Amino acid sequence: MPKENKVRERKAEIVKQVTESLDKSQVVVLTNYSGMSAADLTALRRKLKAAGIDYRVVKNTLARFAADESVKNIDRGIFEGPIAAAFGYDDPVAPAKLLMDFTRSGDVSLSIVGGILGESIISAEKVKELAQLPPRDILLAKVVGGIQWPLTALVSCLAGPVRGLAYTLQARIKQLEEA
Question: From 3.60.15.10, 3.40.225.10, 3.40.50.2000, 3.30.70.1730, which CATH number describes the 2-133 domain?
Answer without folding.
Answer: 3.30.70.1730
